[in-house]
């Protein structure tokens, strides 16, 4: 072993594998700092919780624009949903490499396990990730290291290869046993927390990518709220499902047109980039159909980017707008 403190930066999603990778390194005296990421598709809360549990420092980086690009054009393709896992891993490790060279870390560690995920963690994918990240020499996978080619930190004696592991395959039993050994009780389920693996979210995201190829981070964040409609003009309309949605829609207004059923109890709704007044009228009718009035008309407040007005819309059956739902 080295006669100085060896420093590792460990990708920390909050999943069990990433937590175990930290434990395995700590067991041989390596000083570990966690690294977690934020984007419109995942947050840092799980990584933060894991770092608190491990009592290690944590670095948080925003990779929103990089991952937006990868979701649309993943060089190594998507997983089952819109998850570009191979490219996403390479991106995260590349970011870790930049931090490692700026802050003097000796190695980068991840919780990847050989063969655990058929697409993104087979031997070829692990090699691809290492190569594309540009960090192959210092990238260590402590949980499967003894099944992989020795890395620089192992060859130089910064870490003892003999004390690294040979985990392989899809069974989680060895990880559960290690969790018990290390007293780890709190962790995220595999791939939990990434919206790019959520089929319902990905259906909405695909629809957005098809209809608005120049979509923004704001547009992605709006996919997380309410019922969605695509109006015949191409404008997007979002109707709150409950009070929480209504509050989130009002907070996300950001220059879009807000429609509020404020006389009769009903939803708050957001019309994104309306093309004409016809969009506002149709949106108001959809909004009225979700109010507490089951017939007649509903008077609503409309707040565009520049003006405030009132509009009265006839209550129609919701079925009338069924084809516009996305
Ligand atoms: S599950 Fe999501 S966060 Fe994890 S590697 Fe895949 S795309 Fe990235």
Written overview of the protein:
This protein is an alpha/beta fold and 326 residues long. The chain folds into two domains: 7-194, HUPs (Rossmann fold, 3-Layer(aba) Sandwich); 225-324, no CATH class. 36% of the residues lie in helices and 17% in strands. The chain is built from eleven helices and eleven strands. It has helices spanning 16-27, 45-54, 64-72, 85-103, 123-133, 152-155, 173-182, 199-211, 217-222, 243-251, 277-289, and strands at residues 7-11, 31-38, 58-62, 107-109, 139-140, 227-230, 236-239, 257-260, 268-272, 297-303, 308-314. A six-stranded antiparallel β-sheet has the order 6-7-9-8-10-11, with helices on both faces. Helix 1 packs across helix 7 (173-182) and helix 4 (85-103) packs across helix 5 (123-133). The longest helix has 19 residues, at 85-103. It starts with 6 loop residues before the first strand and ends in a 12-residue tail after the last strand. The relative contact order is 0.11. The chain binds iron/sulfur cluster (SF4).
The residue-averaged pLDDT reads 95
What fraction strand? 15-25%
The CATH architecture of the largest domain would be: 3-Layer(aba) Sandwich
User: Which cofactor or ligand species appear?
Assistant: iron/sulfur cluster
Cross-sheet strand order for the largest sheet: 6-7-9-8-10-11
CATH topology of the largest domain: Rossmann fold
How would you spell out the order of helices and strands? Answer: EHEHEHHEHEHHHHEEHEEHEE
The number of distinct β-strands equals 11
Which structural class fits the helix and strand makeup? alpha/beta
Characterize the overall form: elongated
Estimated helix fraction:
25-40%
Query: What is the radius of gyration computed over CA atoms, rounded to a whole number of angstroms?
Result: 24 Å
The CATH class name of the largest domain reads Alpha Beta
């Amino acid at each position: 072993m080295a006669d100085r403190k060896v420093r590792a930066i460990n990708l920390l999603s909050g999943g069990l594998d990433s937590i175990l990778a930290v434990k395995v390194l700590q067991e041989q005296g390596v000083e570990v700092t966690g690294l977690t990421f934020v984007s419109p598709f995942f947050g840092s809360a799980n990584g933060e919780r894991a770092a608190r549990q491990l009592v290690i420092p944590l670095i948080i980086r925003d990779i929103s624009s990089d991952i937006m690009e990868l979701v649309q054009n993943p060089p190594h393709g998507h997983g089952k949903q819109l998850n570009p896992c191979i490219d996403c891993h390479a991106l995260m490790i590349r970011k870790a490499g930049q931090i490692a060279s700026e802050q003097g870390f000796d190695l980068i560690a991840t919780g990847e396990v050989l063969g655990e995920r058929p697409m993104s963690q087979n031997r070829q994918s692990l090699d691809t990730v290492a190569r594309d990240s540009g960090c192959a020499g210092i990238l260590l996978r402590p949980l499967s290291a003894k099944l992989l080619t020795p890395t620089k930190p192992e060859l130089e004696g910064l870490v003892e290869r003999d004390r690294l592991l040979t985990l392989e395959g899809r069974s989680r039993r060895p990880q559960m046993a290690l969790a018990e050994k290390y007293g780890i009780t709190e962790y995220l389920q595999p791939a939990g927390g990434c919206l790019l693996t959520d089929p319902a979210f990905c259906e909405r995201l695909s629809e957005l990518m098809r209809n608005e190829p120049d979509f923004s981070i704001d547009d992605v964040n709006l996919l997380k709220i309410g019922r969605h409609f695509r109006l015949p003009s191409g404008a997007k309309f979002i109707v709150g499902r409950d009070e929480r949605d209504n509050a989130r829609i009002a907070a996300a207004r950001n220059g879009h047109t807000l429609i509020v059923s404020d006389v009769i109890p009903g939803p708050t709704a957001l019309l994104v980039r309306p093309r004409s007044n016809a969009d506002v009228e149709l949106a108001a009718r959809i909004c009225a159909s979700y109010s507490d009035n089951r017939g007649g008309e509903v008077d609503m407040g409309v707040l565009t980017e520049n003006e405030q007005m009132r509009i009265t819309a006839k209550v129609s059956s919701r079925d009338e707008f069924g084809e516009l739902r996305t």
